[in-house]
Design brief:
With 642 residues, the chain is α/β, with parallel strands linked by helices. It has four domains: 216 residues, Alpha Horseshoe (Serine Threonine Protein Phosphatase 5, Tetratricopeptide repeat), CATH 1.25.40.10; 259 residues, Rossmann fold (3-Layer(aba) Sandwich), CATH 3.40.50.1460; 70 residues; 69 residues, no CATH class. Helices cover 49% and strands 10% of the residues. The chain contains 25 helices and eleven strands. Strands 1, 2, 3, 4, 5, 6, 7, 8 and 10 form a nine-stranded mixed beta sheet that branches. Strands 9-11 form a two-stranded antiparallel ribbon. α15 runs antiparallel to α16 and α18 packs antiparallel against α19. It is globular and about 75 Å long.
């Protein structure tokens, strides 16, 4: 059984809230009275996953730059994060632009998208960039590393892409929305069209847009050039202008008709666009109320539709006082905020763009407003992390395993916020408490990676300073308890978890932590009672089931423990801890093949404690088997155990 001497990972969960309306919740069951798990139980359903690609420039200098592509892709990704676009979670959105949009990066993301999606889920793919067009055969999308010669190497057929999406719609029952806008780069011949005469396929309806005429070549105002983008028109339609029946739902045919009407009113752009959406009446997205009401004579907004959601006084100021370059800089600033790119990547992040805006003398009157907008973004992102600590779901577990360094950004966010607002601000005290909390959390997470005893006292000192500033913060008391537990001070840790649950009685994490403490103190009955309470309060969290499973495991009730481990896997199929615990249970039941299969899953999903494999008595029956040694050597070649 996975029972390391320190407290387990449940103590450091930072998990985001997600709407229960989008999932069929897995309810708690009693492992003794109801030991069988229904095979019809499911984890989250109705998840939106998206792949967004925008290529404005290419490795091959012979390919023309396409200013519209990256900006449109980023704006579309930002739209997906709004309530109108489905409030897509960050871990379910892959945004590839320029250097990151290689053929390998695209195909890897596409494989993830198609492999993870299932019935009831929504698949969204948006591509903007260049393409190779031929009189015969499908268009082929270009990527950052596509070679200059017109060969199949380095390209991806649009027909193949839509075929894969159609298969997902037909075989998995996933809902698909696809849009691609591209400009011919290699062969500028009239595009015969992929779907001429075949608008229905695999339950999807296809629409082709684009006028087979050369784009207008005369020099035009920058704002006019921006308005020629299908991507901009697409967002305007999705946000409500395509809602012809005013029911606040956008259907595929409505969107296609809107775009066709839009292109009739514009000069030819030289671009083409393709849409694919469910052929039935399934709606694509929500629409803003009264979005189609446009007072007569109103000048067209210079900002992209997604940025018009900002509703900031800055918008009017920019329109009246800023030139086109400054407006584009401001747009990029807002886009990176909406995409969560506050400090990273350094070459294109909100903080860097803010510095550029502050150097614009024409914006001196709104410098303070720009700074406050940045401070709000820092606080919003940090607050989501704290909310995640109080609201549990399985998604963040996977993100934590893949991107734990992300939490090092939160102290920086809060330090910059304090610098912007000043120490006299009425929020300064709370902001400092949060900053100290995250600084201590980063130290404790580093200790779990690299057990250096000097890290824990430093982490404890940070949290004690934080609680002095915010003496009723349950999450800080809980974190102090975690550190005390890692220092072996279990009774002190238990008292701190009690305080945390007193301030936040419906929060499951302190109860799980107390259950673990009782387990280490060999107070099994108390551990069981606390574990059941934790599950009842956090039945959507896999770690509550894992904690209670360890209790039954130690009691020798392996069947009950195994059911709890499987319950955790129904919520988070990629939990390495659940797979490892399941392997231990199978080994104890005399099922070596099942145990080895579960161990392989644990290794694939990130289990990283090879020493535990050989010291865990639950796996003793496997230690002498060649298959076990081969498996351990395959995943941990640097670790040798004779």
């Amino acid at each position: 059984m996975r029972l390391p001497p320190s407290l387990p990972l449940i103590f450091c969960l930072l998990i985001p809230w997600q709407s229960t309306a989008q999932e069929e919740t897995i309810r708690y069951f009693h492992p003794v009275l109801s030991p069988v798990i229904s095979t019809s139980s499911t984890g989250p359903r109705g998840v939106i996953r998206a792949l967004v690609v925008g290529l404005s420039r290419y490795q091959n200098a012979g390919f023309a730059e396409l200013p519209f592509a990256r900006r449109d892709a980023e704006a579309f990704a930002a739209f997906l994060k709004t309530p109108y676009g489905g409030s897509i979670a960050s871990e379910d959105l892959v945004l590839l632009t320029d250097e990151t949009a290689t053929l390998a990066g695209f195909t890897d993301a596409l494989y993830w998208l198609l492999n993870e999606s299932r019935k009831g889920d929504k698949i969204v793919v948006y591509c903007a960039g260049g393409a190779q067009l031929k009189e015969q055969g499908p268009a082929r999308l270009l990527f950052f590393d596509s070679p200059p010669a017109p060969t199949d190497a380095g390209y991806f057929s649009l027909e193949k892409l839509t075929g894969l999406l159609g298969e997902a719609a037909r075989e998995k029952g996933a809902r698909v929305f696809f849009c691609a806008e591209f400009r011919p780069i290699l062969e500028k011949r009239p595009y015969g069209g992929l779907w001429d005469g075949a608008e229905k396929k695999n339950g999807l309806r296809f629409e082709r847009l684009g006028q087979a005429k050369p784009a207008v070549r005369e020099k035009a105002a920058d704002s006019t050039i921006q308005n020629q983008s299908y991507g901009r028109a697409l967002l305007a339609g999705l946000l409500g202008l395509a809602d012809t029946d005013d029911n606040q739902r956008i259907l595929g045919p409505e969107l296609a008709q809107y775009l066709k009407q839009w292109e009739k009113k514009r000069p030819p752009t030289g671009n083409y666009a393709c849409l694919a959406f469910p052929y039935n009446d399934d709606w694509i997205c929500k629409a803003r109320e009264n979005a189609r009401l446009n007072p007569g004579g109103q000048k067209e907004n210079l900002f992209t539709p997604i940025l018009q959601l900002e509703v900031q006084p800055l918008d009017k100021y920019m329109t009246a006082h800023a030139d086109s370059a400054t407006r584009h800089l401001y747009e990029d600033f807002i886009l990176t905020i909406r995409l969560g790119q506050l400090l990273t990547p350094p070459e294109r992040c909100a903080a860097g763009l803010l510095d550029s805006l502050l150097r614009r003398t024409e914006l001196s009157a709104v410098h303070r407003q720009l700074l406050r907008r940045m401070a709000v973004a820092y606080q919003d992102d940090t607050q989501q992390a704290l909310n995640a600590y109080l609201q549990t779901s399985a998604k963040e577990l996977l993100r934590r395993r893949k991107d734990r360094d992300h939490y090092k950004l939160y102290p920086q966010y809060l330090k910059r916020t304090i610098d912007i607002l000043g120490n006299s601000h009425f929020m300064a005290k709370l902001l400092e408490a949060k900053m100290l909390y995250f600084e201590g959390l980063v130290l404790r997470l580093e200790y779990e990676r690299r057990p250096d005893a000097a890290l824990l006292p430093e982490a404890l000192e940070k949290q004690q300073r934080a609680i002095a500033l915010e003496p009723e913060a349950a999450f800080i008391y809980n974190e102090i308890g975690v550190v005390r537990g890692l220092m072996g001070q279990y009774l002190t840790a238990d008292s701190l978890f009690r305080i945390a649950s007193g301030y936040s009685p419906t929060w499951s994490v302190p109860y799980s932590n107390r259950s673990n403490v009782m387990l280490r103190l060999n107070r099994i009955d108390d551990a069981q009672e606390l574990g059941i309470t934790a599950v009842s309060l956090g039945h959507w969290s896999p770690h509550t089931y894992l904690t209670l499973g360890e209790v039954y495991h130690k009691k020798g009730e392996i069947a009950a423990a195994e059911n709890l481990y499987r319950r955790a896997l129904l919520i988070d199929p990629q939990s390495p801890l659940a797979w490892y615990d399941l392997a231990c249970a199978a080994a104890l039941k005399g099922q070596p093949d099942e145990a080895l299969a579960s161990l392989r899953k644990a290794f694939e999903y990130g289990f990283d404690r090879p020493d535990q494999l050989w010291n865990d008595q639950d796996l003793q029956a496997l230690h002498g088997k060649p298959a076990f040694r081969q498996l351990a050597a395959q995943y941990f070649p640097a670790y040798r155990k004779e």
